[in-house]
Amino acid sequence: MGRPERPLDPADGPVAEFAVSLRQLRLRAGSPSYRELAKRAGFSPSVLSAATSGFSLPSLPVTLALVQACGGDQQDWRRRWREAADREQLDPVHTGPAAEPAADAEDALRPGPNPADLRRPPAARPGRPRPTVRNRPAERDRAASR
User: Fold this and answer.
1) pTM exceeding 0.70
2) Which H helix or E strand runs over 135?
């Protein structure tokens, strides 16, 4: 048996709320291990565990594979994932203020900010622990080259 998952508070934002929902789905499926789910879902146990960690929104393919492995409704979870992604992108606590609407047609043609640039890394989000060195790409690459 693996170590217990860290507690999540759904009030911490859309990502945490989504992760709590995924954990509840897994619980209703009989709490299969991530290794067992990996066999069914086609993703590694660590990827599936990360999907329910609440640190970041899992990709849609990972979400749907986990949902299928737990016997959930993929259409419902596809909708939930899109809602969480939309809310995470617009949540001022995590991403800053939403972009102003275009004032005229010329402004509408200018490219807006890249949503990926607006997201803060998990370490910068309130209530989140800093990632370990091995999880920060620049430091991981430096350590690997030593």
Assistant:
1) no
2) none
Q: Is 4 exposed, middle or buried (0-12, 13-18, 19+ CB in 10 A)?
A: exposed
Which residue do the tokens 């929902």 mark? 21
DSSP string, 23-60: HHHHHHTT---HHHHHHHHSS-HHHHHHHTSSSSPPPH
Distance CA 141, CA 26 (A): 34
pLDDT digits (tens, 9 = 90+) for 70-112: 999 999 999 999 999 999 885 444 444 344 444 444 544 555 5
- Give the whole-angstrom CA distance, residue 85 versus residue 123: 19
Tens of pLDDT, residues 22-75? 999 999 999 999 999 999 999 999 999 999 999 999 999 999 999 999 999 999
Four-way CATH pick for 10-95+116-144: 1.10.10.250, 1.10.260.40, 3.30.70.420, 3.40.190.170: 1.10.260.40
